[in-house]
Each structure stands twice: as C-alpha cells, then as structure tokens.
Amino acid sequence: MQYFCGIDTGGTFTDCVVMDESGRITIAKSPSTPKDFAAGFFNALEVAAEKLGLTLSQLMQNTRLLLHGTTVGTNAIVQLKGVKTGLITTRGHGDALIIMRSVARPACRSKSSCMYRAIRNPSRSFPARSFKKSANVWIGKEWSSCRSILTRRMRRFTT
Fold it and tell me: Are 150 and 110 within one domain?
C-alpha cells in the first residue's frame, strides 16, 4: 500500500494527514515541541502509523509523497516575530509576503491593482528589503538537476 502524507507544524499541535492509494484518510495530531520541532514532526507521523497498524519505518518505506508545511514559520513572518531573517525567492516573488499581508487585498479588483496597493502602502515589511534577494531559479519536479545551480546562486547571497 502506498501512502501520501501531509504534516503541518503549528505552535501548539503538529497535524498529520495520511491518504492511502484508495483515498482513505487517516488524521493524527501530536503536541508540537517548540524546543525541537522535528521531534513533534516525527511524533505526529508515529501517531498516524499506529492508527494504520504500522511502525513509523513501515509508513515511511511506503510513503510516495511527504509534504511539510509550517504554520510556526509562516506566523513568525506574518507577525514580525523572530530573529533577523533574510528571504531568498525566485525572481519576481520578493513582494509575495507584502502582498499576502496587505489589508487592501480583499478590495482589489484585479491582481495588478492588488499588487499596486500592497507595494505602494506596505505594512512593516519582513524581512527588510535590504535582506531580500532574488535568484533566477525555478525548481521543477527534477529537483536534483537544479540543486547544484541553486546552491551556487544561494551561496552568493549568504556569504
């Protein structure tokens, strides 16, 4: 049996959703572990595996796709909390967080007017513009073919 797993690390709980190849859904929840969020990640996977009657190792060996989202990271960015941070994006997406946070967004008639309003009247930007860099990269499904190019370009921004 093949599995597809999605995990979201939140500030209080880490949620895990597992779908098998027949479409059956299993939901698991585990307390988040702020001192080491990776522990909460694996704890949630273990809870899901137990519900499926599997060990964590068996679940992982039969997982075709594992997706991870982090509400903790998103909240740190949106709430302007955390340490001094830089942002490296694909060229053309550097203002995505400003646009996302714009209060004018629901009133926009089009994508371009939304972008104009958000950039013209940005709330405090996180990270600061001086800490944003863009790279001409695109990550396709053949990740490994892009890895060395991406690594070289990112080193330029971080050294």
Answer: yes
Q: What is the pTM of this model?
A: 0.58
Digit-coded pLDDT (tens) for 23-39: 999 999 999 999 999 99
- What residue numbers bound the domain in which 145 lies? 83-158
* Residues written for the chain: 159
Residue 96: CA atoms inside 13 Å, Cβ hemisphere, count?
13
Number of structural domains found in the chain: 2
**Burial status of residue 14 (CB atoms within 10 A of its CB: 0-12, 13-18, 19 or more):** buried
User: By CB neighbour count within 10 A (0-12 exposed, 13-18 middle, 19+ buried), where does 38 fall?
Assistant: exposed
